[in-house]
Amino acid sequence: MVTLCALLFFLVSLSVIGVVWIGAAQGPETLLCTYGQRTTEDAVMAEDGLCDYAFYDSMYANDKNTLVDQGKFGQDLQTFMRAADRYNSTALGLAFAFEHIGEASAHLRKAGQYPLETFWRMKIFHVGVLDASDFSTGIDMQVSIWLLKVIHDYASAKGHTVVTALAAPSPERHWAEFLAHLGRYVPQTTVFIAQSILS
User: Which pTM does this prediction carry?
Assistant: First the structure.
């Protein structure tokens, strides 16, 4: 079971998400940067080493950039993938749009790890869900956690170290209890982001 430590994890982004509760990662001065649909030029990508983690945060957003339709990746995701070669210190990851988490999960169930190998070849190993809704249900969060765990397990089986990031609404009592109950299903290298400022 993941022990949640109240460490401050600063988040740098095109839009700030908020305060972070962390299970296990690099430490209290870790930076996570996110890039999304406005990432259309290489120039907007941070220098290697500025961020400890850089996530493309818009997989499946607006029904684009799906695992099963890789021939139609948008310019934003292509820009992020192109930048992967120049990153050594910054670890890269993908985040799935919460509103389409069911579709992403269905694709993963059907296709297995095959679609992920495109990203693994580019050293994009980490995975997250960074935009959970204030109105999301326990079922929604369970599907998100299932998706993160399956991708974590696929990559770990290939020998890759994986950090999973899950953003949840402000840490009110029912969310704290929910995460505590489901913590045993979340991989140990997990970052919990408690959203206090929504973009």
Answer: 0.77
- How far the first Cα of the chain sits from its last, in Å, is 31
Pair 41, 81: CB distance under 8 Å: no
Instruction: Please check the confidence at residue 14 and state whether its pLDDT lies above 50.
Output: no
Only one residue has tokens 């694709």, namely 107
Domains (range + CATH), the chain? 10-195 (3.20.20)
Q: Is the confidence at residue 69, as pLDDT, over 60? A: yes
The two tokens of residue 127 are 């995975």
Query: At residue 23, does pLDDT exceed 50?
Result: no
Q: How many Å apart are CA 133 and CA 128, to the nearest integer?
A: 14
List CB contacts of 9: < 8 A, sequence separation 6 or more: 20, 21, 22, 25, 28, 30, 32, 191, 193
Longest dimension (CA), the chain: 43
CA dihedral 22, 24, 27, 30 (to 10 degrees): -70
158, 193 in Cβ contact below 8 A? no
